[in-house]
Design brief:
Layout: E1 4-6, E2 13-14, E3 32-33, H1 34-37, H2 41-54, H3 87-93, H4 101-123, H5 132-157, H6 170-176, H7 182-197, H8 215-232, H9 237-253, H10 265-268, E4 280-284, H11 297-301, H12 323-328, H13 334-339, E5 340-345, E6 348-353, E7 373-377, H14 378-391, H15 395-408, H16 414-417, H17 421-426, H18 430-441, H19 448-455, H20 458-466, H21 492-497
Antiparallel strand pairs: 1-2, 1-3, 4-7, 5-6
Helix pairs in contact: 2-4, 2-5, 4-5, 5-7, 7-8, 8-9, 8-14, 9-14, 14-15, 14-18, 15-18, 18-19
Length: 508
């Protein structure tokens, strides 16, 4: 059976999905056969653009994908167990079912993005490039996208199917429908990122290339991948930590600024400065004022009766923030007033997210914002360096990195902070101090759940969450959390394909 590519106005959408036999059933008469599509260098570029475009989806890694990350954590989560059959509520309530349609959409979207990369990599050798260096660049970009998608999958589901080529027949699909060990998935992620790093990509993209990857981004992701491997895989901890430090330092040494304090916290999220802020390493681009490609996060997070985020009038509660996070901000933390606000509307009296703002007239009253979604920035890299140092037993170095972030936030340096009885009681170890700093620095940027599962075993995570007061968590029940919640369940329809090879995660 032939494969097709659908070509919309601004991107190439590969009309394939992964781990579903139905992905072969493409009958659109206006589609272009894949084998006939890749004729020129520009065709490959358009396909790569389509792969990047897939990152914007709320079902992959875009700005509105917080359901699968922040709402799984103790930072955010809706106090609504009725809307959409109560399915979104299941994520934060730790009552997630394998039949959850949002879970299935997330799984499929991640694999569809991987398929776009696989199609590019399987066909790129058929094209004669007028600029040979572009072939290596486009291949590197496709491998980067595939790597970060698998990074999402392996952290959330553990062992998952690993597909690295375009699947051409039903037999090939069937042969690829099985879960491989986490270590094997990580090995592929590392291989893809290292291949991408050895390309001709620039250290940072110029303004015209913002939204595409770079060597700084790849180094930072390699560092995060190795750090995650060190913390979660049973073997190779010392070697993985050493590699994490190597790549994170490589990213850090590429920075275009001196001290982090040179960059005001608000500048990181300023729409007017998104092309010039030197803290940003990799971001998903959105276009201000454009009905199709604008950002909606500012308007979506705004609560009724408020106007700080957007000119769009809100009728709802906005981006709900858990009191547990509010209570964790230290007195005087500059990040709190920028990131959250209490809505005092008669019908909405609760905290909402204000970190992502575009109340400009260009965004209009429809909320067509220009916020880019930040995937990687230097505060994240710095705090990962602190985490690596702590895991290597060097808390003095960890404190130096921690202080870089605390200084910008107007917080006392760590040596002073730990003499405060309240701080010392809340964060008695360097590990907890770093986890705290990541929480308040990177709040709502889709890091918190990954930070929790990286820093705690399944049983430790249960204890950590259940120790929190239920009153600070909302109506979602902390009593529901068990060791099974370290991973998401494999979607029911995927298990049905082959219950033995697509076995369900324990407890579901």
């Amino acid at each position: 059976m032939k494969k097709y590519i659908l070509i919309p106005a601004l991107s190439v959408v590969v009309a394939l999905s992964s781990c579903k036999k139905e992905f072969l059933q493409q009958t659109n008469p206006n589609a272009i056969i894949v084998e006939n599509y890749f004729k020129s260098e520009n065709d490959v570029l358009l396909a790569v653009n389509g792969a990047y475009q897939s990152l914007r989806s709320s079902n992959t890694m875009g700005e509105n994908s917080g359901l699968f990350t922040d709402e799984r954590s103790d930072d955010a989560g809706r106090n609504d167990n009725q809307s959409n059959a109560g399915e979104p509520f299941q994520f934060n309530d730790f009552s997630l079912l394998p039949s959850n349609s949002y879970l299935k959409s997330h799984w499929l979207a991640l694999y569809q993005s991987i398929t776009r990369s696989n199609v590019i990599l399987s066909n790129i050798d058929k094209v004669t490039f007028t600029t040979p260096a572009n072939k290596a660049t486009y291949s590197a970009e496709a491998k980067f996208i595939r790597a970060i998608m698998y990074f999402e999958l392996v952290r959330k589901w553990g062992a998952v199917p690993l597909v690295t080529k375009q699947l051409l027949t039903t037999d090939e699909v069937t042969a690829s429908t099985f879960r491989v060990p986490e270590a094997d998935v990580y090995a592929q992620i590392v291989a893809d990122l290292k291949d991408a790093l050895n390309s001709g990509l620039p250290n940072f993209q110029p303004v015209a290339g913002i939204g595409r990857t770079s060597k700084a981004a790849i180094n930072a992701y390699l560092g995060k991948v190795y750090l995650t491997m060190a913390a979660t895989l049973p073997a190779g901890k010392a070697e993985n930590l050493a590699s994490a430090n190597t790549y994170l330092m490589a990213a850090y040494n590429m920075r275009g600024f001196g001290n982090l304090s040179e960059i005001p916290y608000a500048d990181v999220f300023d729409v007017a400065k998104k092309t010039t802020c030197k803290e940003l390493i990799f971001q998903i681009s959105y276009k201000q004022g454009d009905i199709n490609y604008s950002s909606s996060i500012a308007a979506n997070n705004q609560a009724r009766g408020e106007s700080i985020n957007s000119l769009k009038v809100s009728t709802g509660i906005g981006g709900n923030v858990k009191t547990d996070l509010i209570n964790e901000y230290e007195t005087g933390d500059l990040r709190k007033d920028f990131s959250v606000k209490y809505a005092n509307d008669a019908n909405v009296k609760d905290w909402f997210i204000t970190k992502f703002r575009d109340a400009s007239t260009t965004a209009t009253v429809n909320g067509y914002g220009g916020n880019d979604w930040i995937m990687m920035r230097y505060a994240d890299v710095i705090l990962m360096l602190a985490e690596v140092a702590n895991l290597q037993g060097n808390d003095a170095v960890a404190a130096q990195y921690l202080d870089m972030v605390r200084a910008r936030a107007g917080r006392p340096l760590y040596a002073v902070a730990k003499t405060d009885p309240v701080y010392a009681a809340n964060f008695p170890t360097m590990k907890l101090a770093i986890l705290h700093e990541r929480r308040v620095e990177l709040a709502f940027e889709h890091h918190r759940w990954f930070d929790l599962i990286r820093n705690f075993t399944a049983s430790e995570l249960v204890s950590y969450l259940k120790a929190k007061p239920q009153a600070t968590y909302g109506i979602a029940k902390l009593s529901n959390v068990t060791t099974k919640d370290r991973y998401f369940p494999i979607p029911f329809d995927e298990v049905k394909l082959d219950p033995a090879k697509m076995y369900q995660n324990p407890g579901y």
